[in-house]
Amino acid sequence: MTVASGPISVLQAASGLVLNALDAAARRATFVGVGLMALSAIAGAAAAAALAFAVTPANSSNGYLVLIAAVVLGVVAQALDVLKWRCHAEAELRLEQTLTLSVFTDALRRHARAGLGAEMQALGNALAGCRLLFQHLVFTAPAVLLASASAAVLIASLGHLTLALVMLAYAPLYLAAACWRARSMTRTAGAATAARVETARRFADAIGNKEVVRAFEADEFVRRGLKQSLSRATKWSWLLVRLRAGAAGLNVAVYAAALGGLLWLAWTSAQDASERVTLVVFASVTFASLLRPLEMAAQAFRDLILALALVEPLFQPGKLWKRSSATDTSAATVRLVNVAVAYDTGREVLRAANFVCDGGVKMGLKGASGAGKSTVVRLLTGQVSPAEGEVSVAGASPGDSTVMAIALQETFLLDASIRANIEFGRDATEEEIARAVAIVGLDTLLKQLPEGLETRVGERGARLSGGERQRVALARAILKPAGLYLFDEATSALDPEAEQTTMRKIVESRRCATMVIVAHRQTAFSAVDAMVEVKAGELVRVPHRA
What we know:
This protein has 2 domains: 7-315, ABC transporter type 1, transmembrane domain (ABC transporter transmembrane region fold, Up-down Bundle); 334-542, P-loop containing nucleotide triphosphate hydrolases (Rossmann fold). 40% of the residues are buried. Helix 1 crosses helix 4. The chain contains 15 helices and 9 strands. By secondary structure, the protein is of the alpha/beta class. The protein has helices spanning 7-20, 24-54, 63-109, 116-157, 161-178, 182-208, 210-215, 219-269, 273-311, 373-381, 418-423, 430-439, 443-448, 466-479, 496-509, and strands at residues 334-342, 348-357, 362-367, 388-393, 404-408, 484-488, 514-518, 530-535, 538-542.
């Protein structure tokens, strides 16, 4: 997605995003809907004019015919409006599908900046904001212009040009009133949106770890944090309601002033009593027909401010994962040159760290808890950027998913079959899967399961033990041809003997590839070529004996 800055550029970028997300069928539905909207506006204005003519004394002889015409035109306008919203709904549903996939793909490619709850809230915000943009930019704005222009043309056709000009000027004046304190509304809407995202993050964090919350009887603690976020969201949302209500009140004042001025002009410009009654009734009915579309337009403007706050996070800059078209299976060389990393807390984890793992080398990485092993892993995967120095994998900046395969201590498993979790979207043969399963020692488990590879693992792999989940993740990693295999505590749930056997088989199966194995226990390093220890912020070579 395009990065934008400033309200106008964000609105332009968001509008472009919405329009580009419409596929051929959605564009066709939108085009037909706009056409039906134009016909509906014309029919509605004609119905208002016919009704005004029908109730005037000058048309008493054939007033019933004009009244019938007014009713028919009104029904036609309503029918066309229903058809318009049908087209609108079709286009909006297609837009929702395309945008959801777009936001999902973008979230996958970006380095994580928030938790799952925040990401889900951001998706909901994006969909709501883009819907508002689509509805108001494509339908509401043209409807208001058509209604205002139709009313002005009808009055001008009767020879009352001054009244027509007042009617035509009324619309922009009414909308200008809706702009009252627009900047304050924009800032407030942004603050309210951010508070809701924070609330969703806290909610998902607590629910996702409710076993720990219950074990430590920390329900009041997490509830207090959630309540604070909710209070901030309520505070900013209530301020936004007050600002929107103030703008709406100003719209009422503009409406009252315009209606009074229009009626005064109609009254004073008539030549006799009969013409005065006709003109006043006609002006009143026509003016009243504008109230709904103009109020929709004013509401649309206020909604666009909210939409801007909802979609703006989509255009904030963020580091993206790299992706190339072909997998690179040549042994990757890993280099860290004078790398320094410090987190927001001010704690320096690495300082002037140097590390080289030549292509094809199996390197072990150890260190005390908190020494910085996980930071090295994040550097190699591109999740963390060094404050100083340079990190390269296969001669390029880290983050290229086609170069490496990974298996981490915290395994990610889909609520799907074991086969689906091992293949993970790859087109693998039965022989390749069987080989990977045998290497990691998962074949023994599969023989005990009636459904074998088709056994569902449950949410987050709940039906498997910790060691079994790690074996599935290891099988997934080695099934992928890669130049670098990165294992971060990937066998920590296995007993030492099983860990040693499994890692030896994995190393044997990928002799030509580079491997970086991060672990605490020595049994994970039984087959590595060399060892590095993270000590005092540096990467130090240490003796190793296989």
